[in-house]
Amino acid sequence: MGKDIPVAEEMNQSQARYPELFGRIDPAAVPRHVGIIMDGNGRWASRRAFPRIRGHREGVHSVDEVVACAREVGVRVLTLYAFSVENWRRPKMEIQALMSLLREYIVKKLPVMHQHGIRFKTIGRTEDLSPNTRKLLRRAEQETAGYGGLVLNLALSYGGRTEIVDAVRSLVRDAADGKLHPDHVDEALLSARMYTAGLPDPDLIIRTSGEHRTSNFLLWQAAYTELYFTPTFWPDFKRREFLEAILDFQGRERRFGLIGEQLKPTKRVDDAL
Questions:
Q1: Threshold 0.85, pTM exceeds
Q2: CATH homologous superfamily for 30-248?
Q3: What are the sequence ranges of the domains in the chain?
Q4: Residues 63, 105: contact at Cβ < 8 Å?
């Protein structure tokens, strides 16, 4: 069991601001795990003649709104694609600004995580980050490790293919050491070596900015994930847009290889995290 979630003093802002949308959400059919490809910060800034970093800074406000809304509607895990392995090819000054924003966010939001019982995690090759950044991330992970509320999972220096490579390498090492027979490798064993081990696969992945691709995000885990694409740039994606995505998800029929007649309404039991 995780730590008890502190009682929030503020009211449910999503319900208060968007009662019609919030009221249409079926609590029993909320996706357990939502992943978001937060795209469009640079284009949002460019269209306003702002520097790119302004778009990234505005995007942090969207993170605040979506994290709060996810917690309020009952999402168990929220994975945000914050920095990809390919993003290391961006201009050095932009990378430095992004890492500064990341550290600023953790410092400011750690008290909020404590207040609401949010468990903070990271996935990716975080060893590529600076020592100061890694130290701050470890602190946030350690201080919130026992919480049983929303899991806020940041994908940093992350790539779906590199994740699969890292998982396979760990299995190969075990096989070379005689700890594992190749015939014993199956999907469950490989899943257990992914960065997301212990978390449910995403039910829903959202991509903002109008692009229609997953860009190397959660490739293994997204085998049966519902995809939601919106033209809204990330800095403009707030509570309303997140609620609309949840409602769209709830209107879909997920068959997992079955036919419609085989599906029976079942009461969902959340996986223990």
A1: yes
A2: Decaprenyl diphosphate synthase-like (3.40.1180.10)
A3: 30-248
A4: yes
